[in-house]
Amino acid sequence: MRIAHLYNFTQISGHCLIILLACFMLSACNPQTDPLSEREARVNARESELVTLFAELVELKKSLEKDQPDKHSVGENNPRAPNVDGCVCENTEASSVLKDTGKIDAKTVLGGIEMVHLDPPGLEFSARIDTGAQTSSLNALDIVEFERDGKPFVKFNLIHPQTGEKIELTRRLRRYARVKELRSQESQRRPVVRMRVILADIDEQINFTLENRSRFKHQVLIGRNLLQDLAIVDVSKKPDSVTADNSADATTK
């Protein structure tokens, strides 16, 4: 009997041990299962948030695209709408500066024909403004070269712009210039004198080549030796009292 009881007790103890071992294993697995479940739940929640955010972005983009054409159409259809590029404002400002001061970038704007004051003789002459000529030139008749105190001088006549009478001038001979006329293969040697010129707000002492300009309508030709860095020529700007010279002028080299 004792042996039978001992055997039963041993058998029961073995079953209990198996049950305890199974419970221990289950309890050991639960701590791993719970964190995995929680992590999966968090991932699902983030996915839901991202889907919602993406949907909001799509709606916002559609709303912006819908409003954009409306703004363009308002700007195009409304003549009073401001110009985004600012071109109208810049052109208006430039026109205002040109109209009020007659200057662009601190340079005087001249027409193709202008009135110039020469000193001597202290008179106004109509002048052709020619950017193609290197040196200015002056109508000179009866040119006579001579020496005074060992220095070269030249005497010549101008035509009075109002009376048509001859005006005799004597100037120091500075040098000679080689001038080739249009449609001519030969260059001519011409004397150069220095005179004061007042043109618009320009007041300078410049060189003039002396030549017979009787075939031209204007006794004075203003070239680059006065215009450079000081003036801009706009051929559409012409004084009403001056007739344009359609003749070909000489080009100084």
Name a few traits of the molecule:
single chain; 253 residues; alpha+beta; Cathepsin D, subunit A, domain 1; six-stranded mixed β-barrel; three-stranded mixed β-sheet; 3 helices; 14 strands; 38% helix; 34% strand; signal; Asp_endopeptidase
Brief digest:
The protein is α+β, with helices and mostly antiparallel strands. The chain has helices spanning 2-77, 87-101, 224-227, and strands spanning 103-104, 107-110, 113-119, 123-129, 136-139, 141-148, 151-159, 166-172, 175-180, 187-199, 202-211, 220-222, 231-233, 251-252. It holds the Pfam family Zn_protease.
Give a topology summary.
Blueprint: H1 2-77, H2 87-101, E1 103-104, E2 107-110, E3 113-119, E4 123-129, E5 136-139, E6 141-148, E7 151-159, E8 166-172, E9 175-180, E10 187-199, E11 202-211, E12 220-222, H3 224-227, E13 231-233, E14 251-252
Parallel strand pairs: 2-13, 4-12, 5-11
Antiparallel strand pairs: 1-2, 3-4, 3-10, 5-12, 6-7, 7-8, 9-10, 9-14, 10-11
